């Protein structure tokens, strides 16, 4: 089945909607041997009377298969609008499927919250996202959307304070991060901007600001703790500084002789066992979780006892207890690092529990 999305532009000078782009687009598809079954018309204004019938006639589709896709206040409203326009009905008919009425109550409630938040006057928090690609916001789109999902669940708007980690120094950190209700250090590769991320993690730890470290962000938290609490001033990741005398982040022994880099990378879904009474266990409400990974270097178990004796808790690990997946600080309002990528599993109507909890902690800090 072919569903073809086209633009119906509106010319404000003449007050007209133009169908020619759609007709030409369908003609190009036909030249490739493709006959669209359904046309979805993207438009900033409701379709003029008779326009859908005209397009159906010239594009050789049934009038009921011409679907209006009006610009809306929020992207999340689009599925509801397409359901109202009958897209699912014509798809089911074309594919010979039973046309059942979907249960969209949960999604509708979420959209209502989003639209309510857009009108302002509600709680809001500022989350500082400290990374090296902040000039290109789409580089962190999954993180940003997941933060918004956490905001929806907590009925709060989330404002992102984009912080270039290369600009974070001991002199600038207070100016850049003092208005933060929460600080997030996302994943990444390479050593550029890493020192700034380490300083950001230290600032969050010492100033009791909720901190969320994801993948490299968790490793940053471990490096910062090793440097400033354990006293290992050159502590680092062997990936970023091969000459460090304290590689608190390193390859596992079984990875060292693998020549193909792809063979050393941990990709996909893995189980994680949570420690009883930990923040992680309380957030998830489970003892065993499954999360998606994309990384190569791991917490170095050689330093496990030293780090935990100084107060950092290993709250999540592989079922065989060989791999550290989560760390946290019990004497902090909310300080959590995860080796996996929870943003891959967050949804607008079902925020990932870590993002929902992180935003709640940020709200609690702001309200104090």
What fraction strand?
15-25%
- Uncertain parts: none
Tally of DSSP helical segments: 12
Strand order of the largest sheet: 7-6-8-9-17-16-15-12-13
Mean pLDDT: 94
What order do the helices and strands follow?
A: EEEHEHEHHHEHEHEHEHEEEHEEHEEEH
- Oligomer status: single chain
The Cα radius of gyration reads 25 Å
The end-to-end span amounts to 55 Å
Shape: elongated
Largest sheet report: 9 strands, mixed
Structural class label: alpha/beta
| Helical fraction | 25-40%
How would you portray this structure in words?
- The protein is of the alpha/beta class and 368 residues long.
- Helix 8 crosses helix 9.
- The mean pLDDT is 94.
Secondary structure layout plus pairing:
Elements: E1 3-7, E2 10-11, E3 16-17, H1 20-31, E4 38-43, H2 51-59, E5 66-70, H3 78-85, H4 87-95, H5 105-118, E6 123-131, H6 141-153, E7 156-164, H7 173-177, E8 182-185, H8 194-206, E9 211-214, H9 216-228, E10 236-237, E11 247-250, E12 266-274, H10 279-284, E13 288-295, E14 298-299, H11 304-309, E15 313-317, E16 324-328, E17 335-338, H12 353-367
Parallel strand pairs: 1-4, 4-5, 6-7, 6-8, 8-9, 9-17, 10-11
Antiparallel strand pairs: 2-3, 11-14, 12-13, 12-15, 15-16, 16-17
Helix pairs in contact: 6-12, 8-9
């Amino acid at each position: 089945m072919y569903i073809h999305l086209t633009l119906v532009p509106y010319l404000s000078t003449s007050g007209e909607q133009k169908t020619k782009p759609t007709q030409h687009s369908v003609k190009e598809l036909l030249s490739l041997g493709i006959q669209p079954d359904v046309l979805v018309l993207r438009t900033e204004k409701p379709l003029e009377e008779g326009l859908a019938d005209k397009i159906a006639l010239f594009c050789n589709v049934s009038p009921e298969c011409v679907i209006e896709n009006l610009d809306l206040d929020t992207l999340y409203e689009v599925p509801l609008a397409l359901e109202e326009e009958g897209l699912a009905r014509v798809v089911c008919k074309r594919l010979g499927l039973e046309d059942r009425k979907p249960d969209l109550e949960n999604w509708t409630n979420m959209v209502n919250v989003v639209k309510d938040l857009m009108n302002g006057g509600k709680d809001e928090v500022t989350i500082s996202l400290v990374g090296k690609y902040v000039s290109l916001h789409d580089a962190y789109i999954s993180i940003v959307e997941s933060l918004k999902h956490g905001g929806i669940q907590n009925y709060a708007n989330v404002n992102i304070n984009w912080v270039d980690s290369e600009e974070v120094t001991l002199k600038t950190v207070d100016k850049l991060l003092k208005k933060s209700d929460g600080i997030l250090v996302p994943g990444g590769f390479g050593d550029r901007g890493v020192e700034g991320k380490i300083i950001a993690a230290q600032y969050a730890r010492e100033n009791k600001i909720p901190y969320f470290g994801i993948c490299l962000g968790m490793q940053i938290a471990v490096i910062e703790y090793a440097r400033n609490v354990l006293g290992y001033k050159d502590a680092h990741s062997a990936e970023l500084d091969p000459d460090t005398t304290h590689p608190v982040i390193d390859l596992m022994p079984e990875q060292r002789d693998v020549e193909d880099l792809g063979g050393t990378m941990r990709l996909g879904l893995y189980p994680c066992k949570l420690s009883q009474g930990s923040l992680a266990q309380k957030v998830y409400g489970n003892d065993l979780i499954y999360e998606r990974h994309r990384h190569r270097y791991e917490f170095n178990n050689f330093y496990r006892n030293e780090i935990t004796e100084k107060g950092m808790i290993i709250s999540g690990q592989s079922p065989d207890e060989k791999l550290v997946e989560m760390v946290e600080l019990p004497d902090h309002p909310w300080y959590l690092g995860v080796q996996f990528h929870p943003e891959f599993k967050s949804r607008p109507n079902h925020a990932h529990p870590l993002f929902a909890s992180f935003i709640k902690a940020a709200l609690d800090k702001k309200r104090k």
